[in-house]
């Protein structure tokens, strides 16, 4: 089942106004309903290497896995379970690849990356994330943060040590408690959500949400949601206009129509003509 007509995807990335190179990486494949974003970390160009490995390997492995499993033809419950298993396995393999590269090549020692992945199927989206790269959803003009950061700052907010307002002024924004490739094993947080026509999903590195308030992101998506490439570029420009202290990357996925699982021969045939 090809989801390219059901989902509209646009993306943008920029080095920012301070950094000398871009350690973010993004990849999308509308035909299988996949979006991937990673924000690398490490000395020299190591962060760029880690995020590049992450998006390339996850995209390649997910394409192969989906082709083998007929994921988009499964009933909902089975498909939800299989989506989570595929994401978990592919992310574990990617973690091993980055970890082994970091430990076998001194110039890459300590490299790692955050990760957020969205996999759409059967009017659902499975979201996997590690670190503080985020996924938001705009529905009926209201923006909600779907993922919860794996960061020291988030833990301080959860414990009551900091308010959200104080957290925005904190100097510890970039201290993540979980990252891909740093340890031999890492647990991705994976959840599945319903999807509705008109929804816009935003994957972003912290270079966006550290520089642009959620309210301004919401206003921009509501104003420009009919032109997704323009909206993506505008969000990046807003981050840079506000200082651009980090690399900034966004992926926007707009749901144009329902995409139920093609779980019968007739449904699969009919889907070819949509």
CATH topology: Phosphatase 2c, domain 1
Q: Tell me, what's the shape?
A: globular
Q: What's the overall average pLDDT, rounded?
A: 92
**Helix/strand order:** EEEHHEEEEEHHEEHHHEH
Let me know the number of strands: 11
N-to-C span:
11 Å
For the record, the CATH architecture stands as 4-Layer Sandwich
- What's the level 1 CATH class? Alpha Beta
Please state the CA-atom Rg, rounded to the nearest Å: 18 Å
Structural class: alpha+beta
User: Low-confidence runs (pLDDT<50, min 5 residues)?
Assistant: none
Strand content: 15-25%
CATH homology superfamily name:
PPM-type phosphatase domain
The overall number of domains is: 1
Main sheet characteristics? 6 strands, antiparallel
Summarize it.
It is built from 8 helices and 11 strands.
Features:
single chain; Phosphatase 2c, domain 1; six-stranded antiparallel beta sheet; five-stranded antiparallel beta sheet; 37% helix
Description of the structure:
By secondary structure, this protein is α+β, with helices and mostly antiparallel strands. The protein has one domain (7-271): 4-Layer Sandwich (Phosphatase 2c, domain 1). The chain is 37% helix and 24% strand. It contains eight helices and eleven strands. Strands 2, 3, 4, 5, 6 and 9 form a six-stranded antiparallel beta sheet that branches. It has a five-stranded antiparallel beta sheet with strand order 1-11-10-7-8. Strand 7 and strand 8 (142-145) form a beta hairpin. It is globular and about 50 Å long. The N and C termini lie close together (11 Å). The model has no long low-confidence stretch (mean pLDDT 92).
